[in-house]
Amino acid sequence: MTDLIGNLLLGLTVSLSPDNLLLCFGGALIGTLIGVLPGLGPTATVAMLLPLTFHLPPVGALIMLAGIFYGSQYGGSATAILVNLPGESSSVVTCLDGHAMARQGRAGVALATAALASLFAGIVTTFLIAVAGPPLAGVALAFGPAEYVSLMLLGLIGAVTLAHGSVVKAIAMILLGLLLSMVGTDVNSGDTRFTFGLPQLYDGIDFVPLAMGLFGLAEIIASLEQTGGVGRTTAPIASLWPKREDVRQAWPATVRGTVMGALLGILPGGGATLGSFAAYSLEKKVSRHPERFGQGAIEGVAAPEAANNAASQACFIPMLSLGIPPNAIMALMIGAMTIHGITPGPQIMVKQPELFWGMIASMLIGNVILVILNLPMIGLWVRLLRVPYGYLFPAILVFCCIGTYTLNNSAFNVLLMALFGVLGYVLRKLDCEPAPLMLGFVLGPLLEENLGRALLLSGGDPTVFATRPISGSLLAVAALLLLVMVMPAIRRRRDEAFKDE
Amino acid sequence: MPSLPFPNLRPSSSVATPPRGPSATPFGTAPAASRNAAADERTPLRIPGRASQDLAAGLLITSFGLIALWMGRDWPTGTLAYVQSGFFPRMIGALMVLAGAVVTGRSLLAHGAALPSWGWRPLFGVTAAVLAFAGTVETLGLVPAVLILVGVGNLAGQPLRPVPLALLGGALAAGCVALFVWGLGLPLQVWPLGVWP
Fold it and tell me: Which of A286, A440, A441, B63 is deepest in the core (most CB within 10 A)?
């Protein structure tokens, strides 16, 4: 315990030095301002701003990067809430209820909830890493390929709850997402699949054009259609700050989201991505009024935002101890470390304690600075919604196009975005929802890889998924969840049938 | 299908369908309201069966599955112990066909929502604007591409008058150059190739 306090103090002295504090603040500010632009998600923002940190000393560079990372993540959540554009997989979930809240004039409440829930999750998870980091890294090792397959199946089945319509259609959307994730070169064999002979598709489909098309463009088209070209007006802004009632509803969700995110974040690979989806599914399951979800339930913002922040912090554990980056942003962070001559790995804690603990403490500081910085800015973001839609939607289109184009300087990505915009609009008209599709798309490659690996290790014995204890119990939970979801639908339909007769 | 036990059986999905939450409620402008009323009066698409929305969804899902199976027809499946590149696509494709068949079948047996009307103008306007940007950004450069995007996109909604439109386009183009090219130093072609270095 004294160790822990000493370590954290060491970290705090490093990160609270005026220079580093300024770097963290500057990073968070620039990160928020760039990240809030539609089309520029956290990954793109961190990649664009990475060169800013090259000439800094290593600790300062990492602290500034952490600031940029948190800033861009919060900026991304703000875009998701304000204009329904998810810049990364975790904001897909924030869109669902966050944007619904914004349309009811509660954008300020949603933004404040997102900031505060993230702060809470950040603080708790920082202490968790400090207390239990190294032993928890061992948990990740108990997860073999079979366990990952079962975990992802559980996550995918949980994703059905993201939709409010029919279970079968939601499953079909997950399958479509898996199918889209297979486009490109198969990592094992080098065979190209579903590329239609186009070399631009050999690297697969990027997340950004898919998300921008399915959510952003489809939303703009639908919004213009439903209002005869004027654009949706949001309800007048009721209040900027959460009321006592909001806090009462949001805090248990925040705590559950934090736990969920931290647990899943420890798993290298797919864990961090699942965090926000899993937290949302859990909230909808434990809620006494699941029908409120998707209509602006504050829990639907608090839980995934907390889970996302907890997971992105907890994933430092596998990253620093095993050197495995869980997502593109963390891979960029590792890249930044190697530029400064730091090799991530178990020895980093022992050899460079001021760096390790400085980084841990800077997460804490970064979270606090972010809230201080952003709470006053909420009024500004919300005012953005008062811009007439005729001016707003061309601007959103411009940012979506440039963001997608600059991903690889490829006009093909913009083309793909237009295509997915049409697909998203068609799916909307057929009452098929895109959120489950996104999770299928994100988890697809991991699922396929681990499925193949698990079968290889078991010598082609498919019972391995059921017989290994962790894997088996995860599968049992998944089966139970599916049953719970299908049963009420059947029962309700019978009831209705009888009522009608 | 007269012999069904529950003639009024409805899939749960269609109960809450077209106006979903506050989102789908048209905020009453006169043209929108009248257009929607017109759409409600005539049945948009006459397909046998009673849930044309689900029928279309089912057929779309099935066709995606069939396309996947057809495209992957020659890929090696391997064995369970050594799964190859054709295994996963075939599995997912087959499951999609199954899911599509369930949705299609249910739509034929049950009442449900009809296919909603389509907003052709915003669909074409927005798609054309984005495609125009994709086609021009590399040859004509960022500034013309943004102006074209704003100009074409403007036709998707209620068009702005020329002066506000020009101001919006100019401001967006200038802002994008300042932010992305000068601020972030991204390698973007600003002016038409050959005209400007």
Answer: A441
